[in-house]
Design a protein that fits this description.
This is phosphoserine phosphatase. By secondary structure, this protein is an alpha/beta fold. The chain is built from 18 helices and 17 strands. The protein folds into three domains: about 220 residues, Rossmann fold (3-Layer(aba) Sandwich), CATH 3.40.50; about 110 residues, Rossmann fold (3-Layer(aba) Sandwich); about 70 residues, Alpha-Beta Plaits, CATH 3.30.70.260.
Length: about 425
C-alpha cells in the first residue's frame, strides 16, 4: 500500500496564519486595524484549539478582512518568504513524492497554490477552500459547499476521497488531530516549529519540532541526515541572550544552565560557554556526542585543547574579547554543524565549504598521518562512488577531509570509512 502525507498549510508549511497576514495587508490603512487584527487572531486561536467551530471562525475572519484580489497578490509574495525553514530545505522530498504529498487545509487555494507548487506539489493534490468575489474583485465570502469550510471538514473530505493507502498527517491545529480521532490516518504528527498548542500536542502520536524530524522518524529522503532539534546545545555561564537566540532560531535543542551538569555529559552535541567556565578533562573524555564548543573568552586554562583534538571537537573561542563575538561564535558553531565549515576555529584547519545541492556530504576527521587520504579514496573507489568534490586541510595533528558524493551508496560504505586506521570522528552532514 502507498503511503500518503497529509500536510497542513498555515503555521505548518508556512510560518504564519495566512488570513492573519492578509488582514495586516488589507487593513493597513484602517483606523481600527489593531482591534480588528486581534479579533481575527482570536478567531484563529479559538478554532485551532477546538474551542470554536471552524465554520464560525472562518466566517468571522473573512467578514473582517475587507480584502480584494490585489491584496491576495501581496499576500502570496509575503507567504513565499515565510515558508517554514525545514520545509524549504526539503524540496527533494516533495519532488520524489509528488503523487503522495498532499496539502489539505482550511485555508484558501487562491494563496496556497502559488506558494506550494514551486515545491513540486501538484495542483490536483491541493485541497482547500475558495473565495467568492464580487464584480470588483472584493472578497465577499467563500464556497460554503466545500467540505473544508465545515467543522470537521478535513475528516469529511478524506471520507469522500476514500484513499487506498496508509495516511500520515502533519499539522499544528485541532482540525489536524480530528483526522487521527476519526481513524482515517495512521499517525498524527503535531508540528511545533512555529507554534505549539498544548491541546494538540498532548493528543498527538508524535511531536515533531521540524519537518526534518518527521522525515527522519519515517525514514524518508531529507536534506540533512540528522534533525537539528535532536542535537542538544548546552549553554553554560554568562552568555548573552542573543547567542542562545541565534542557535534556537537555527533549530537546535537549547538548555541553559549555570554549570555543566553530569547528566548532560553523554548527550551534549554543542557547548556554548561563558568566560571563565572550566570543563574538566574527565567531562571532555566522556562527552562522546560533543561536536563543537564555543567559548566567549580565551579557552586557555579552561578547556584541554589536546583532548578536543583527540575527540574531533571543533573549538571556536574569543581570545580578544570582542563584543560582537557573542553573535559571531554561535554562528560559527552553527555553520560547522550545518555545512562543515571550520572558519576561525581555534584548533582545526580553517575551511569554508561551498553549499552543494543534491549531494551527500561526508566529514572525516582523522589523525594527520601519511597515507590516510589514500585509504579514504580507496574505500570510495572500491564502492564505485562518484566524487563530486573533495576538500582536505591539516593543522598540526588534525586532518579534516570533506567529500561530496553523488548517487546511491551501500550503508556498508559508512562502516568502512569509520574503520579506517587513525579515524577520530566521522559523520554524514546531509
Amino acid at each position: 500500500m502507498k503511503n500518503y502525507y497529509i500536510i497542513d498549510f498555515d503555521s505548518t508549511f508556512t510560518q504564519v496564519e495566512a488570513l492573519d497576514e492578509l488582514a495586516r495587508i488589507s487593513l493597513e490603512n484602517h483606523p481600527d486595524r489593531e482591534s480588528i487584527y486581534h479579533e481575527i487572531e482570536r478567531y484563529t486561536n479559538l478554532a485551532m484549539e477546538g474551542k470554536l467551530s471552524f465554520r464560525e471562525a472562518l466566517a468571522g475572519r473573512v467578514k473582517l478582512l475587507n480584502a480584494n484580489k490585489s491584496h491576495l497578490d501581496k499576500l502570496v509574495s509575503h507567504l513565499k518568504k515565510k515558508v517554514s525553514t525545514s520545509f524549504s530545505r526539503n524540496r527533494e522530498f516533495f519532488k520524489k513524492h509528488a503523487d503522495t504529498a498532499w496539502i489539505v487545509s482550511g485555508g484558501f487555494k487562491e494563496f496556497i497554490t502559488p506558494v506550494v507548487t514551486p515545491y513540486h506539489i501538484k495542483t490536483e493534490n491541493i485541497y482547500a477552500n475558495t473565495f467568492r468575489f464580487d464584480e470588483e474583485g472584493n472578497i465577499i465570502g467563500f464556497d460554503e459547499e466545500n467540505p473544508l469550510s465545515n467543522e470537521g471538514g478535513k475528516v469529511q473530505l478524506l471520507k469522500q476521497l476514500n484513499i487506498e493507502g496508509r495516511l500520515f498527517g502533519i499539522g499544528d491545529g485541532y482540525s489536524d488531530f480530528q483526522l487521527k480521532e476519526s481513524g482515517l490516518i495512521e499517525k498524527f504528527f503535531a508540528f511545533t516549529e512555529n507554534i505549539q498548542r498544548k491541546s494538540v500536542t498532548e493528543k498527538a502520536d508524535f511531536i515533531t519540532p521540524s519537518f526534518d524530524e518527521f522525515l527522519y522518524v519515517n525514514d524518508l529522503p531529507r536534506a540533512i541526515s540528522y534533525p537539528k532539534n535532536r542535537i542538544l546545545c548546552l549553554i553554560v555561564g554568562d552568555v548573552p541572550e542573543i547567542a542562545a537566540h541565534i542557535l534556537k532560531r537555527d533549530g537546535f535543542s537549547i538548555r541553559t544552565k549555570d554549570t555543566f551538569e553530569e547528566k548532560y555529559v553523554k548527550d551534549v552535541g554543542m557547548l556554548l560557554l561563558g568566560d571563565n567556565i572550566d570543563i574538566s578533562d574527565e567531562q571532555l573524555q566522556h562527552a562522546d556526542k560533543l561536536k563543537t564548543i564555543g567559548y566567549l573568552g580565551d579557552i586557555r586554562g579552561h578547556i584541554n585543547k589536546d583532548i578536543c583534538n583527540a575527540k574531533g571537537i571543533v573549538v571556536f573561542d574569543d581570545k580578544k574579547n570582542k563584543k560582537k563575538n557573542s553573535e559571531f561564535i554561535p554562528r560559527r558553531m552553527a555553520d560547522f554543524i550545518n555545512n562543515g565549515d571550520t572558519y576561525l576555529s581555534r584548533n582545526f584547519p580553517n575551511l569554508i565549504l561551498p553549499k552543494v545541492k543534491q549531494v551527500t556530504r561526508l566529514l572525516h576527521i582523522h589523525q594527520n598521518v601519511p597515507g590516510i587520504m589514500a585509504q579514504i579514496n580507496k574505500v570510495y573507489a572500491q564502492n564505485n562512488i562518484n566524487i563530486v568534490a573533495q576538500f582536505l586541510m591539516t593543522k598540526s595533528d588534525i586532518g579534516y577531509a570533506v567529500t561530496d558524493i553523488q548517487g546511491e551508496y551501500d550503508k556498508d560504505l559508512l562502516k568502512q570509512l569509520k574503520q579506517i586506521d587513525n579515524t577520530i570522528k566521522f559523520r554524514i552532514l546531509y
